[in-house]
UniProtKB/TrEMBL annotation:
<feature type="transmembrane region" description="Helical">
    <location>
        <begin position="248"/>
        <end position="276"/>
    </location>
</feature>
<feature type="transmembrane region" description="Helical">
    <location>
        <begin position="144"/>
        <end position="169"/>
    </location>
</feature>
<dbReference type="InterPro" id="IPR004812">
    <property type="entry name" value="Efflux_drug-R_Bcr/CmlA"/>
</dbReference>
<feature type="transmembrane region" description="Helical">
    <location>
        <begin position="354"/>
        <end position="374"/>
    </location>
</feature>
<keyword id="KW-0472">Membrane</keyword>
<dbReference type="InterPro" id="IPR011701">
    <property type="entry name" value="MFS"/>
</dbReference>
<keyword id="KW-0812">Transmembrane</keyword>
<protein>
    <recommendedName>
        <fullName>Bcr/CflA family efflux transporter</fullName>
    </recommendedName>
</protein>
<dbReference type="Pfam" id="PF07690">
    <property type="entry name" value="MFS_1"/>
</dbReference>
<keyword id="KW-0813">Transport</keyword>
<keyword id="KW-1003">Cell membrane</keyword>
<feature type="transmembrane region" description="Helical">
    <location>
        <begin position="380"/>
        <end position="399"/>
    </location>
</feature>
<dbReference type="InterPro" id="IPR036259">
    <property type="entry name" value="MFS_trans_sf"/>
</dbReference>
<dbReference type="InterPro" id="IPR020846">
    <property type="entry name" value="MFS_dom"/>
</dbReference>
<comment type="similarity">
    <text>Belongs to the major facilitator superfamily. Bcr/CmlA family.</text>
</comment>
<feature type="transmembrane region" description="Helical">
    <location>
        <begin position="87"/>
        <end position="105"/>
    </location>
</feature>
<feature type="transmembrane region" description="Helical">
    <location>
        <begin position="313"/>
        <end position="334"/>
    </location>
</feature>
């Protein structure tokens, strides 16, 4: 079958493999912006006079807030101007902020620049999802997004190790030089190889009325809204772990420089799950796989809460339980996003921005709450995961009118 290859090449100017690789690298901007600096958070705090170790988590939260709100701007803009111009502009802003952070004298200035850097990164999240939706739909979109997520998840596997390596030979400021160069490197194929995927007939005026109408379309679509809410709360559990990962793996378990290895194992489980989903989704469908994974996520989190209440989990048991939770997350993420975007192809840019805003801000706020609840144990993280699992089940039941596992798209 050559249709997917021909379709991808015709619409994007890239082969299917090249297309997936570039979309994954664009999505990975946000992963590397967070994960590469986890080994350096302690030194950042010490260098800039941060006394409360939980305050170091704001380096992550400021970025997420900037990225979340800016998606509301980049989505409608990409529906008006096309996908490439906003994407290149966002990458440029991201790289300039990263370089500026190298020279910051205070923690407050660092947080401000991280916020603006998140604004630039918003373009990569919104436009990437919009481009995939321009080219694919239905189960094909879920398959492509799963492959994108699989490659995207390789970044959290290696990013902390890169950050740790940088910290061995240089100070934390060099981390921001590296991520600036990464963004500039990605901008080259975007500018020279990626074709504009938004057809001129699908462009929308960039006016307040049109933007608000696009928001109305998104927020009044039951499936799009409630799958987005489900994704938002589940991301809260992931962000909660990322916020407190250094404190848990170094502070509680004393891993020291081996922290990136264990962190990578969790990201690796999500990558395996994304690849598994890409192989199975055409056969079984998005709902069968993601609904099963959602129930598995909630059950595994419940077991985690019960075990953690007995005392500090031994490291091997913690790794097994949390890896099981993350595997289920990997089976849900791409499918939930694809199902939310499926009915909104005619306003893909605006839809992607509203969905991304809700997911990033909602997940970021919940994640910050979970992270700030860190008390020297993994129990708050376990309780947070179980709570968001229950909420996600409720949201999915509303989206599906109380019936799980019903296929909506034919295989093919």
């Amino acid at each position: 079958m050559t249709k997917p290859l021909d379709q991808t090449a015709a619409l994007s100017g890239l082969t299917k493999v090249q297309f997936i690789a570039l979309m994954a690298m664009l999505m990975s901007i946000n992963a590397i912006s967070i994960d590469i600096m986890l080994p350096g958070l302690q030194e950042i705090g010490a260098s800039l006079g941060v006394s409360d170790e939980n305050d170091r988590q704001y380096v992550i939260s400021a970025y997420l807030v900037g990225m979340g709100f800016a998606q509301l701007f980049f989505g409608p803009l990409s529906d008006r101007l096309g996908r490439k111009a906003p994407l290149i502009g966002g990458l440029t802003l991201y790289a300039l902020c990263a370089l500026a952070i190298v020279f910051v004298p205070t923690f407050t200035m660092l947080l401000l620049l991280r916020f603006v850097q998140g604004v630039g990164a918003a373009a990569t999240r919104v436009v990437t999802v919009s481009v995939v939706r321009d080219v694919y739909g239905g189960r094909q979109m879920a398959e492509i997004m799963s492959l994108v997520m699989m490659v995207f998840m390789i970044v959290p596997v290696i990013a902390p190790s890169i950050g740790q390596l940088i910290m061995i030979f240089a100070e934390w400021r060099m981390i921001f030089v590296v991520i600036a160069l990464f963004a500039l490197a990605i901008s080259v194929p975007v500018a020279t190889r990626l074709r504009e995927t938004l057809a001129p007939t699908h462009r929308r005026a960039f006016t307040a009325a049109v933007i608000l109408d696009g928001f109305r379309v998104v927020l009044t679509n039951r499936i799009a809204l409630f799958y987005t809410l489900a994704t938002s709360v589940l991301l809260g559990a992931l962000f909660g772990f990322i916020n407190s990962a250094q404190q848990i793996l170094v502070g509680v378990y004393g891993l020291g420089i081996w922290f990136p290895v264990v962190f990578a194992s969790f990201a690796g489980m999500m990558a395996v799950a994304s690849f598994t989903n890409s192989r199975l989704v055409q056969r079984f469908g998005m709902r069968a796989l993601s609904h099963t994974a959602l129930l598995g996520f909630t059950l595994a989190s419940f077991v985690w809460v019960a075990v953690s209440l007995l005392g500090t989990l031994p490291l091997p048991l913690f790794v097994i339980v949390y890896a099981a939770v993350m595997f289920q997350f990997g089976l849900m993420a791409a499918n939930f996003n694809a199902m939310a975007m499926e009915p909104l192809g005619h306003v893909a840019g605006t839809a992607s921005s509203v969905l991304g805003f809700m997911q990033t801000i909602g997940g970021g706020v919940i994640g910050a709450f979970i992270g700030q609840a860190f008390n020297g144990s993994v129990t708050p993280l376990a309780i947070g995961s179980f709570a968001v699992g229950v909420l996600a089940v409720v949201f999915v039941l509303v989206a599906e009118r109380g019936r799980l596992f019903r296929p909506h798209n034919p295989a093919g």
